[in-house]
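dumping this here before i forget
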Amino acid sequence: QVRLVETGGGLVQAGGSLRLSCAASGRTGSRYAMAWFRQAPGKEREFVACIRWSSSLYYADSVKGRFTISRDLVQNTVYLQMSSLKAEDTAVYYCALDLAGLGGVLPGPYDYWGQGTQVTVSS
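structure:
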């Protein structure tokens, strides 16, 4: 079993920055992909960013240029650095892990999910 623990959510003013962290523990192996999704009230879960085992990076168009995904392989931790935040970024942000290492923009391939951390951007 893999456990994902997310931290870093909170309240931030529009235009500000915030960094989310997700630490993975358990039997992750060494070839996993990790991603961030978000879900606003009344909306479907939305892909935000992904880093594959190969280190390839993928971003949703809505966050490209503002968000950066990175990882620390030693700590098994993935980060999401969010800048120039907008009110539309308000959502619960979820960390996800794909043991196969490929990830993707849909939630189906991911094997494990974090509990979510709330990000609220005030305008």
